[in-house]
Amino acid sequence: MVDCVRLAGACGAEVRGLDASRPIEAATADLLRGWLLEHGLIIIRDQDLSKQQQVEFSRLFGSLAIHPLAHQVDDEVPELLVLDSHGKSGTMEPENPEELAGKIDWHTDLGYVVKPNYAGVLHGKILPPEDGLTGFVDRQATFDALPEGIKAQIDGLTVVQSWRHSQESISKNPAFRSDEGAKVMSLDLFPDLGFPLVVSHPMTGRKILNVSHMWSSRIVELPDEEGAALLKQLLDHSLEERFVYWHSYRLGDVVLWDNYRMMHAAGGTLGKYRRQMYRTTIDGDCELGGLPIDREAIAGAQERIAALRAEMVGR
Ligand SMILES: [Fe+2]
Q1: Is 63 left (phi over 0), alpha (psi -120 to 50) or beta?
Q2: pTM of this prediction?
Q3: 101: alpha, beta or left, given left = phi > 0 and alpha = psi -120 to 50?
Q4: Ligand 1 centre and the CA of 108: distance in Å?
Q5: How remote is the CA of residue 105 from the centroid of ligand 1, in Å?
Q6: Which of 6, 29, 32, 161 is the most exposed place for a label (fewest CB within 10 A)?
Q7: Ligand 1 centroid distance, CA of 107 (Å)
Q8: Candidates 2.160.10.10, 3.90.1150.10, 3.60.130.10, 3.40.50.1100; correct CATH number of 3-314?
Q9: CA dihedral in degrees (108, 114, 115, 119; nearest 10)?
Q10: How far is the CA of 109 from the centre of ligand 1 (A)?
Q11: 223 in Cβ contact with 73 (< 8 Å)
């Protein structure tokens, strides 16, 4: 009997009684899709999925995205990324064995494009003895908890989600990762776009506080200083302890999150320890906004991304 129990922490739920490696009945698949929408984050313990089994399981939630730019795409199963702290082959020597590597600030995946992916799936295959956590914040809960006056003030405003902003933050804070993937993602691929600061979830209609530390750079309608102060207030609010859940992996965990709704972060792993996760990504076919701030730059970027995708699929 498959059931779903809310986690004691800030957000998320655990699905119990499921073997995700086996074919899943239609009724159970419906339950899983419903639980993902209800909780935003679901965790299934004690799984041992092959790459192909993870792909099949992930397809229950929608068609899978092939990451356009990632250097970690698996050679045999292109829908799957192998995120390995010691490189794709697992043999890379760490530069700094005693320092945290792979730390990533709070973000939603592809939060700076018109149609970000709907969901992500991580499956822990090799775990470090410490650290290696993934953080989650439910941005539906952060919106709901705002004072009514602020809700009214921010509804209708536009936030710029900016790849450039993330790269500037990374360069100021060396603790955050700037990996090979980031190097190929040049600024002209991802021009700044404006999004509703309060966005409605495309599948549930629930309101979401659409900010993240990595992408949110300014508020279009407000003078710079006033916008920066509001943004800081909203970002600080989002990281209040009551909203933050850090998932500590057990071997075999499968973690799924609704990327429209949750923001996430990587806590990093000491260089000397190996951490390997299988990652699949469920495509999004909904536009979350994307006010063109520079139309020409966007048209050019779309062509360049299409060319990169074609290259990736063709290899
Ligand atoms: Fe991410």
Answers
A1: beta
A2: 0.89
A3: beta
A4: 6
A5: 9
A6: 6
A7: 6
A8: 3.60.130.10
A9: 10
A10: 5
A11: no
